[in-house]
Prior knowledge:
This protein is mostly helical and 267 residues long. Helices cover 69% and strands 1% of the residues. The radius of gyration is 19 Å and the shape is globular.
Amino acid sequence: MQLLPPSEIVFNFSKIQQLEDTVRKIYRLIIYSRYHFDDDLLDSYLTGMHNLKELVGIKNAQMEAQTEEELEEYIINLKKSLDFVVDEINDHNRFDSEVQLFQLLRLISPETNSIHPNKYRNTLVQIGAHICPDGSEVPSLVAELFYQMKQISNPIIRAIYFHHELIRIHPFADGNGRVTRVAKNWILMYDLFPPTFISDATEKKEYIQVLGNSFRDLDKNPGKWNKHIAQFFDLELDRLIDNANHLFEIVENIGNQREKKKIDRSV
Length: 267
């Protein structure tokens, strides 16, 4: 398998600009408003991601839980993973190594790691019509992916590129989607962008279909950008923009409520 060269990436600059503008608006509120605190941002999106009802929707959409027990375990593991990521970011550690990839696997999918401790898969895997690379190729492909990531300066594009290519490699026996999503969010959060997750079954279906189509075209024309990869990048950007707008509204509302309380007390 040949990785998509970063030089082939064609991205929608206007959407990236829109996302960056919204994130700047959030930080202006946090820094300059008298009615916001430093931890409003972190509390807002961590609370949202840890909300049980929301996670049930995410989990069902991702078709990764069959029982209530599995769902509960998923939520616990996701929280551990996100707490780990936040601690790493606070220690100024960006996501850029295979060691960190295995750290995420141990946290988000401990059952997979227990079967093959700190190892990539050695079995054949197929995603739709796409036959993933042989297990013997996986170590070199993952190493190359981390090298290629370093050629991408924009963290948004780097995160989406990593997501697309790691799923295409499918390095683990199980838990690939979970590990990839948390890793992508680590890349985003390190550079102050909010994390993002698939929120419902419709989104999940579209996500799988677009990925499958992009993999199929890459199998036919290795290393070449295609319209389905472009669609995947666009959908990821749209998700990020929607999430950032939602986050801005939440943070803004926190300040508005505090301001109202202060005015009410002074009347």
